[in-house]
Amino acid sequence: MLNKKQIIDLVITELSREHQQAIDAANDAHAAAVDDQSVAETQYDTLAIEASYLAEGQSKRVIEFQHAIDAYKALNIVEFNSDSYIALGALVQLSADLEANHWFFIGPAAGGFRCRLDNINITVITPQSPMGTALIGKQQEDDIEIMLGSNQRTDYIAALK
Q1: Higher model confidence: residue 47 or residue 16?
Q2: pLDDT band at residue 153 under the 50/70/90 scheme
Q3: pLDDT tens across 38-65, in order?
Q4: Do residues 26 and 34 lie in contact, with contact meaning Cβ atoms separated by under 8 Å?
Q5: pLDDT per position as a tens digit, 96-145
Q6: How far apart are CA 55 and CA 35, in angstroms?
Q7: SS3 content of the chain, % helix, strand, coil (to 5)
Q8: Nearest 10 degrees: CA dihedral of 79, 80, 85, 88?
Q9: Sheet containing 114-117: which strands, arranged edge to edge?
Q10: Per-residue exposure over 64-80, b if at least 16 CB sit within 10 Å of its own CB, e if not
């Protein structure tokens, strides 16, 4: 049986790891931007400017990861049934994924994150993704059509939890 709390905990663990890497990268970029070695020697020497842009970008990543972690911590765990409409927090299985025992978890962030729990393959998707957009508001047994790259996929929703 799928445990949404475990899925959320795995996502938060991964986001926290990536958050720490972003903090380390931002600190390294900031240190490079203010290092004596980065002082411009000529008008064409842009090392300090490049390092400061990198530090700013890394700092934005730190904030994005923190927002994603906060969104998962605030996510209400809701159990869906065959009469429910798919929304944030739903676990969805398409008919084509029955044999592979693959499910989609609709989360607020970390789209593309994959994990395996109790021999069940789980992929996190966001409501903004093409698959998320195709699923949100649908119910079990509904048909979906989705464009993935140049391929059109037609399927139906086999299960919802």
Answers
A1: 16
A2: confident
A3: 555 666 557 667 777 888 888 899 999 9
A4: no
A5: 999 999 999 999 999 999 999 988 999 999 999 999 999 999 999 999 99
A6: 13
A7: 45, 20, 35
A8: 40
A9: 114-117, 120-125, 102-106, 91-94, 151-160, 143-148
A10: ebeebbebbeebeeeeb
CA angle 102, 77, 118 (to 5 degrees): 35
Round to whole Å and give the CA distance between 97 and 143. 14
Structure tokens at 101: 């025992």
The residue type found at 15 is: L
Beta pairing, strands 120-125 & 102-106: parallel
Q: What DSSP character marks residue 101?
A: T
Q: How far apart are the C-alpha atoms of 84 and 149, rounded to whole Å?
A: 29
